[in-house]
Amino acid sequence: MMRRIAVIEGDGVGKEVIPAGVSVLTATGVPLEFEPLPWGCDHHQRTGRMMPVDGLSTLAGFDAIYLGAVGWPSVPDDVSLWGLLLPIRKHFHQDVNVRPVRLLPGIRSPLAGRTAAQVDMLFVRENTEGEYSGAGGRVHQGTAHEAAVEVPVFTRRAIERTARFAYGRAGERRRHLINVTKSNASRHAYPFWDEVVEGLATDYPTVRVERVLVDAMAARMVSHPDSIDVAVGSNLFADILTDLGAAIQGGMGLAASANLCLDGDWPSLFEPVHGSAPDIAGKGRANPIGAILAGALMLRALGEDAAGTLVEAAVAEVTLGGQALTADLGGSASTTEVGDAVAAAVRRRRTAGPVAAG
Ligand code: GGG
Q1: Strand pairing report for 256-260 and 268-272
Q2: pLDDT tens digit string along 34-88?
Q3: What is the residue extent of each domain of the chain?
Q4: Yes or no: domain 120-248 corresponds to CATH 3.20.20.70
């Protein structure tokens, strides 16, 4: 069955890594029809909007959204994020953001001596609320009394959906769930978060749940990453921790994420974790592996598990081989060359026969 994919390259290196990802997805032979949507900060420069007025209804007709990066110095960062990525997450009920943190074969983590087997974490991030709710305002603007309030919003529904998803993933993995919180300093929101997350534990008797404060979690990711299986956290906490996770993986360019509409009523969105990287944009130096692995997450969400495994195995082959790596990983290959190497590995593995992981 042909699936229609909305492709929003967005800004900066998004325009380079997404074409590499599309070439790899095409190499899998899965019937996908890609429709480019030229939205982002350039669109904002031309029209005053990050996407057209009817952008969300346009996206509603697709099976999935494949997005590169959002943000450019020409547009204030809050305007670009609130004009494109955040409304998509909220409007399409993309309740959870899933971010695997895995060390790929051949990649050296900045954590000395850590091997691929010791770094395999899965972060499940609440994706539409918390500090990203948009509740708040500014008063006395332009005066010496100016003030701003940002009110994190936590609903039982969103916490519960996120936590149930995380318990489910933990049950399929090493049966350990870390609840990332800050309920020692927070008076209301995080005690409520803990109540909801940990109150569900009885429904998942095989999963051991452990409460860890976000600051301790940051330290633990560095000192004992092997003790972390699945972690569930609020929007802000998991956003920050997964950038740390990306660094532990070997760099921001390697990390992928899925924004999932759990009901399946609306398209889910798949993106590399990194931003638009203006410092290297346009130079062909961006690492496309995060975007390619986001494509693998998209294949799995579309029910194409074998193709997802195929792409992940092809990426692992290329990182292990070490011949086609971008500068952030110590290589000299361009974005396109890495994409071509992974696509070639996908094609080779397809002609070689049944999919083999690793
Ligand atoms: N890859 C999409 C992108 O540009 N992300 C940058 C960013 O700031 N994202 C915020 C978030 O994930 O909440």
Answers
A1: antiparallel
A2: 999 999 999 999 999 999 999 999 999 999 999 999 999 999 999 999 999 999 9
A3: 1-97+257-358, 120-248
A4: no
Q: What is the pLDDT of residues 25-34, one digit of tens each?
A: 999 999 999 9
Ligand 1: nearest atom to the Cα of 71: 4
Of all protein residues, whose CA lies closest to atom 5 belonging to ligand 1? 275
The ligand 1 atom at the shortest distance from the C-alpha of residue 11 is 4
Query: What pLDDT score does 275 carry?
Result: 97
Whether 272 is in the pocket of ligand 1, judged by its Cβ within 6 Å, is: yes
CA of 236 to the centre of ligand 1 (A): 12
Using pLDDT thresholds of 50, 70 and 90, give the confidence band for residue 115: confident
Report percent pLDDT > 70 for the chain. Answer: 99
Q: Is the pTM of this model over 0.85?
A: yes
CATH number, domain 1-97+257-358, options 3.40.718.10, 3.90.230.10, 2.60.40.730, 1.10.1040.10: 3.40.718.10
CB-ligand 1 contact for 229 (6 Å cutoff): no
- Among 85, 88, 292, the mutation site with the greatest number of ligand 1 atoms within 8 A of its Cβ is 85
Question: How many other β-carbons are positioned within 10 Å of the β-carbon of residue 322?
Answer: 13
Q: Output the CA 272–ligand 1 centroid distance in Å.
A: 8
